[in-house]
UniProtKB/TrEMBL annotation:
<keyword id="KW-0812">Transmembrane</keyword>
<keyword id="KW-0472">Membrane</keyword>
<feature type="domain" description="GPI ethanolamine phosphate transferase 2 C-terminal">
    <location>
        <begin position="424"/>
        <end position="574"/>
    </location>
</feature>
<feature type="transmembrane region" description="Helical">
    <location>
        <begin position="432"/>
        <end position="450"/>
    </location>
</feature>
<keyword id="KW-0256">Endoplasmic reticulum</keyword>
<dbReference type="InterPro" id="IPR039527">
    <property type="entry name" value="PIGG/GPI7"/>
</dbReference>
<feature type="compositionally biased region" description="Polar residues">
    <location>
        <begin position="601"/>
        <end position="612"/>
    </location>
</feature>
<dbReference type="GO" id="GO:0051267">
    <property type="term" value="F:CP2 mannose-ethanolamine phosphotransferase activity"/>
</dbReference>
<feature type="region of interest" description="Disordered">
    <location>
        <begin position="601"/>
        <end position="642"/>
    </location>
</feature>
<feature type="transmembrane region" description="Helical">
    <location>
        <begin position="801"/>
        <end position="821"/>
    </location>
</feature>
<feature type="transmembrane region" description="Helical">
    <location>
        <begin position="563"/>
        <end position="588"/>
    </location>
</feature>
<keyword id="KW-0337">GPI-anchor biosynthesis</keyword>
<dbReference type="InterPro" id="IPR045687">
    <property type="entry name" value="PIGG/GPI7_C"/>
</dbReference>
<feature type="domain" description="GPI ethanolamine phosphate transferase 2 C-terminal">
    <location>
        <begin position="709"/>
        <end position="954"/>
    </location>
</feature>
<feature type="transmembrane region" description="Helical">
    <location>
        <begin position="863"/>
        <end position="884"/>
    </location>
</feature>
<dbReference type="InterPro" id="IPR017850">
    <property type="entry name" value="Alkaline_phosphatase_core_sf"/>
</dbReference>
<keyword id="KW-1133">Transmembrane helix</keyword>
Length: 969
């Protein structure tokens, strides 16, 4: 009965966890409520002193617009035909929120970062008011779009001609730009019978520079040639519009064309974006036109906001300012307008933005403004004073310049205050979510998720090391929870986990030294090497946020020598593949086969749990001569004869599938390194060819490359797809093998079979993780396997327990390696480059499966170390239970009890992982509520909350997998 109650408590905890996440997420990051009405000049002008009766308040200066979005620019500023700005991009600095800000004038929040991967509504009538909507529906403009398909998802049914490119295939740095550039000739061929040149607005969104940054960083050897390519495109577009404007100059009604060259976001020192570093939030914005006449080198020192593009284009092209816009006109652009026109522009924008200013109370006249309290009250009183002065000056026009300056002041103050207020949250829902999480933790405590650490053995009794395990685990929880109340510790969280990991390993090392009589020297050496491995992993990538670009890492060294980079990456991939294959042979060919054989009733040694205690001479010669991967399925010669053939076949098929899988992944990862000479695009891209990247590396490995291509004569995307198929086949074979092994007669054999099941799952997952990981991170998998095998070595059967803190250390190592892979608590490190590996836009599978694969890839590529070590905790725990039952002579335990114990073990481990992370999540939610008014709430806490929720969802998925496995076993 108690077991049923405990299970119900666990299920209730999981349900409450889901509700808690939902309420806190929607409370802290609510979907912004926007006015769905569309603006018009009439609605804006009705309160205007200057433009009440004008059809268009200010005559537009341009009739054609080209918006070119790119991440790195050169300039046309020397001739005075352009003016440039630094356009501040607010977090999150990812594409979808930035395009929203540029086109709507609003300030998107983190919900938009989450929806960056999701399809948008295809109904154009439900669109938010934007530049695109106003141009199409109010000004009857024709828009063509080529490039990032985010535009198509945000503004469906708005483009007369378009060609979208998926932005998540970041491994493509060439074709993704050619798909845009190949449309330029037809777009600028203004012959009467060419429909493709019949555009008023042309949008070009180039992705190549962004992709190079994701792949190799801003200092990549590919960056200079790509920047020259973009310069060539800008030069071509400028020349074309200059020629066309000259032809149209005879028509007095025609107006010139405007090119706006901008970046939707920047990139940090390692090529990522999404965070709040200066490099990520400071893209350029340049206005270019032959008709512009600015002083030479007009690089304005002014830093503008990206949303300022909206009202600026509104007055330059003559369409109404979109609803909900918080941008203000760029003052330098209109500096040469007449005073009256400037006054009209700033007055209309002030009237528009005043509707968005939150009001604590209504101020109807200046008499109400004697004691304004809040900043918004003061702003309202300033606006009333300004409007009063403007009405008095309508007759004499003596204070026009003063009015212009006061309107500028009001616009700047209003934009600043609204921007600070934009991220409103629902505090009651946040508190409800935190309460749900708290109650969920209480139910997990009632279940006893902590017992795996505190008690340490299946006997569920205290032992001499109870205090050691308790202190290590409780210290971990307390320190990690306290760190959530410090923004610096959130930004540099990796310091804490590496410190905790090395501290616990040091304590373990000292513990082994102090117990020399019982601890072999090999254990001391292994723990020391574990400390070395963790230290190496810490230096592999640029870690943290504050000093990310200032640290020296192996990654920097690899990419600092372009001549050798490909050779190094190829070597790392080769070494990793061979090392993991050796680990497979060790696990299946030596350790587990001997462990299980030694536990059979016919074995003369019934208590030999460790590989180091088994000598080859102790194993019967007939066993040594047999297939190394074979495992005795049942005790007794008759059952062995009946099962050996099928068992051996399944084992060989499973291993063959795995080796074919790892080979496919190896080919996929190394093919780009060996195919360098085929990237010369001169025949295709004649305008400004990207130089070929032939080097001696290709010549040296040409023979190897051709051999691989002969063995796998298919497209690389098909190799990736084949890898997915082999992965699922391998997983099915793992389950079939487990069913065969679980029929073993003794309890230790049963638990070894369970441990081997999780090892099987790990081996099947590893090639997919390699497929989706960065090439330079492949070596870290060797260190992870060393940690795994070391923890098997450190299981101590003589005391029937895990050596103190073993599971706690594995948990800390999981967190440490997560950061060692280059992950941070900034969205800039969130890797989307592998989301669509093996997928193409024309992949003929159901959309749900397509998106599920993309989501699976995203989770595996970003949380690979955590997933790896979570399965490792399962495997090591099962192995330690096998040692316990072996030493306590419980081989005659009834089968029903064996199954029940195995199921409880799997569920216990899953709930231990969930419970530990849930306690940390609760502390994060508490700190977010307490510090909700902190200056860095959106730049530091918000991305950390997103990562923590994503990890919690991954933990819940683990629980579901654990429940499914428990039913299967």
């Amino acid at each position: 009965m108690k077991k049923i109650i405990n299970l119900v408590a666990a299920l209730i905890a999981i349900v409450l966890n889901v509700f808690g996440i939902y309420y806190f997420f929607t409370g802290f990051l609510p979907q912004k409520l926007t006015v769905n009405l569309k603006s018009s000049w009439n609605s804006i002008q009705k309160n205007s002193f200057e433009t009440q009766n004008a059809r268009v308040p200010v005559n537009p200066k341009f009739d054609r617009l080209i918006i070119m979005v790119v991440d790195a620019l050169r300039n046309l500023l020397k001739e005075g035909k352009a003016i440039g700005f630094t356009a501040n991009a607010k977090v999150p600095t990812v594409t979808l929120p930035r395009i929203k800000a540029l086109m709507t004038g609003t300030i998107p929040n983190y919900i938009d970062a989450v929806t960056n991967l999701l399809e948008q509504d295809s109904d154009s009538t439900s669109q938010q008011d934007s530049i695109i909507w106003q141009l199409v529906n109010n000004s009857n403009k024709t828009i063509h779009m080529f490039g990032d398909d985010t535009w198509l998802r945000l503004f469906p049914n708005s483009f007369a001609h378009y060609e979208g490119t998926t932005s998540f295939y970041v491994s493509d740095t060439v074709q993704v730009d050619l798909n845009v550039t190949r449309n330029l000739d037809s777009a600028f061929d203004f012959s009467p019978d060419n429909e493709k040149s019949n555009w008023d607005v042309l949008i070009l969104h180039y992705l190549g520079l962004d992709h190079i940054g994701h792949l190799e960083g801003p200092k990549s050897r590919l960056m200079p040639s790509k920047q020259r390519e973009m310069d060539g495109i800008v030069e071509k577009i400028y020349t074309k519009i200059k020629e066309n404007d000259l032809k149209k100059s005879s028509n007095k009604q025609s107006k010139p064309s405007l090119l706006v060259l901008l970046g939707d976001h920047g990139m940090n020192e390692i090529g990522n974006h999404g965070g709040s570093s200066i490099g990520e939030t400071s893209p350029a914005m340049i206005f270019i036109s032959p008709s512009l006449d600015f002083p030479p080198n007009s690089q304005s020192a002014l830093t503008i906001d990206q949303t300022d593009l909206v009202p600026t284009l509104s007055f330059l092209l003559g369409f109404p300012i979109p609803q909900n816009n918080v941008g203000i006109p760029i003052f330098d652009i209109f500096s040469k307008y007449s005073e009256i026109d400037q006054l009209k522009i700033y007055e209309l924008c002030a009237l528009s933005i005043n509707n968005l200013v939150p009001k604590n109370k209504n101020y109807n006249n200046l008499d109400d403004c004697k004691n304004p309290i809040s900043e918004f009250d003061k702003l309202q009183c300033f606006f009333l004073s300004l409007r009063n002065q403007h009405s008095l000056d309508l007759i004499h026009r003596k204070a026009t310049n003063e009015l212009i300056e006061r309107y500028k002041t009001y616009l700047t103050r209003a934009q600043t205050l609204i921007s600070q207020k934009f991220g409103g949250y629902d505090l009651p829902k946040m508190c409800i979510g935190a309460i749900f999480i708290f109650i969920s933790v209480l139910f997990l405590i009632y279940y006893g998720f902590y017992k795996l650490i505190f008690l340490g053995s299946p006997s569920q009794k205290r032992d001499s090391h109870f205090l050691t395990r308790s202190l290590s685990y409780v210290s971990l929880i307390i320190l990690a929870s306290i760190s959530h109340f410090s923004t610096s510790l959130i930004e540099e969280e990796h310091f804490m986990w590496f410190y905790l990991t090395q501290t616990l390993l040091l304590f373990k090392f000292l513990f082994l030294i102090s117990s020399q009589s019982t601890s072999p020297n090999m254990d001391k050496i292994i723990v020391f090497l574990l400390m070395v491995s963790v230290r190496i992993s810490k230096s592999w990538n640029n870690l943290g946020i504050k000093w990310q670009g200032q640290t020296i890492s192996v990654r920097n060294i690899i990419y600092s020598f372009p001549i050798f980079t490909n050779w190094i990456l190829f070597s790392l991939s080769t070494i990793t593949t061979i090392s993991i294959a050796c680990a497979v042979y060790y696990i299946y060919g030596y350790k587990f086969s001997l462990l299980i054989e030694s536990d059979s009733p016919s074995s003369t040694t019934s208590k030999i749990p460790q590989t180091r205690q088994i000598k080859k001479k102790d194993v019967h010669p007939s066993n040594r001569k047999s297939q190394p991967l074979s495992v005795e399925l049942k005790s007794g010669p008759d059952s062995q004869k009946s099962q050996d053939g099928i068992s051996l076949f399944i084992q060989k098929l499973s291993r063959s599938t795995w080796f074919f899988l790892i080979f496919c992944v190896f080919v996929y990862k190394t093919e780009p390194l060996l195919n360098l000479s085929k990237l010369d695009l001169s025949p295709v891209y004649s305008m400004n060819p990207q130089p070929g990247r032939t080097n001696r590396f290709f010549e040296i490995f040409l023979v190897v490359y051709r051999t691989l291509r002969i063995m796998a004569p298919v497209k690389m995307v098909e190799v990736a797809q084949l890898s997915y198929v082999l992965f699922f086949v391998s997983m099915i074979l793992n389950l079939v093998q487990y069913k065969a092994r679980s029929k073993l007669g003794s309890v230790p054999q049963s638990f070894n079979a369970l441990s081997l099941l999780f090892i099987d799952i790990l081996f099947s997952l590893t090639p997919i993780m390699l497929l989706l990981s960065k090439p330079h991170n492949s070596f870290l998998f060797i260190l992870m396997y060393f940690v795994l095998l070391s923890n098997y070595q450190l299981v101590d059967p003589s005391k029937n327990i895990l050596i103190p803190t073993n599971i706690t250390i594995l948990f800390c190592i999981a967190k440490s390696f997560y950061f060692a892979f280059g992950n941070t608590n900034s969205l800039a490190s969130f890797d989307l480059s592998s989301a669509y590996t093996g997928l193409t836009s024309d992949f003929n599978i159901p959309k749900f499966i397509y998106n599920s694969i993309a989501l699976q890839n995203t989770i595996l590529s970003n949380f690979a170390p955590l997933i790896f070590f979570y399965f490792a905790i399962f495997a090591v725990s099962a192995s330690s239970f096998a040692s316990f039952h072996r030493d306590n002579d419980s081989s005659k335990l009834p089968t029903s009890n064996m199954s029940s114990t195995r199921r409880k073990l799997v569920i216990d481990v899953a709930l231990f992982i969930l419970g530990t992370d849930l306690v940390l999540l609760l502390s994060l939610f508490a700190s977010t509520i307490v510090l909700r008014s902190h200056l860095f709430i959106w730049s530091v806490f918000a991305p950390k909350v997103l990562y923590a929720i994503a990890l919690n969802v991954t933990d819940l998925a683990f629980c579901l997998i654990a429940f499914a496995i428990s039913l299967f076993i």
